[in-house]
């Protein structure tokens, strides 16, 4: 029965599974999940319980997960935001839950110990990190943990960006990083997910999920009718049209997020991923 479910989005192993999957998968034990919250700026989600195991995605400050197992230094669970399953460091999560009110709205910003840019910042927060503001200010806002963030770098959770392409463009020249979704490094689907999340639009994590769930499908026999915001998919890759002719994407060829002529990208990518498989439009 396990082969019928996507293990990226369903928490099951031969020995343990989410109780919600009882009757759908075979497992020795089924358990209720315990809600936990990410307490570090960025936490890697790994395929296996090892620091050297492949990073499949990242969870950000304030993000929650359902934890099904806590063993030694690792928690096995499922992120509540996009449903991704994996292993996360025990030190990166807590059962003490906050009440986030705001998010970081710039690619990265600092948490200061004092409301002063000359005070030594101790943490760098990525875009879409969530936190609770207890006192707003013209220059600095105070968080529940006692630290301060520059007010112009944050927005309340009910304030969404209006242009996801513009958000994605803020990550130009950011290094390509498998499973990443911050200004320190991101991959192609991470760029799409991060930009859409800033606009209040849900996006699944991986390209195959995005290709079936985002926007509406267009005919792909003519690439001349594209417009800003269209998503171009290959098998295993996705890019965003910055305008009718220009593709914006995080890619392993340049090892960074770049803009380049779509025609050049299509010709080059064909050798690795094949031809364009679909165009999706919001």
Structural class: mainly beta
Strand order of the largest sheet: 5-4-8-7-6-3-9
Count of individual beta strands: 25
- CATH class label of the largest domain: Alpha Beta
- The portion of residues assigned to helices is 10-25%
Secondary-structure arrangement, i.e. CATH architecture of the largest domain: Alpha-Beta Complex
Instruction: Estimate the strand proportion.
Output: 35-45%
Low-confidence stretches: none
Q: What is CATH's topology name of the largest domain?
A: endopeptidase fold (from Nostoc punctiforme)
Q: Please work out how many helical segments DSSP would assign.
A: 4
Radius of gyration: 20 Å
Q: Whole-Å distance between the termini?
A: 35 Å
Can you walk me through this structure?
The structure is a single chain. By secondary structure, the protein is mainly beta. The chain is 13% helix and 35% strand. It is built from four helices and 25 strands. It has a seven-stranded antiparallel sheet, with no helix packed on it. A hairpin with a 4-residue loop joins strand 15 and strand 16.
